[in-house]
Amino acid sequence: MSEGELELVIVAARLKEGSLFPVRSWPVYVYVARSLIGNPELRDTMTSDEFKLIAWAELYPSEQDARLKVM
Asked: Whose CA is closest to 33, among 61, 59, 60, 14?
């Protein structure tokens, strides 16, 4: 992996009523972040200085549903 590439991203629901496990309604509005610490998958929680927000996104149940949103 070259410098600047991401091996792992963190995806978390943006809205209080949002849920990823299970998804309660589509689309799911999420934060996308990169970890600033090693092995974040071993943690239950992270503090704001342990990750960097890189994007906001919307998740859809399928690629087709996402494409329909754009049109």
From this structure: 14
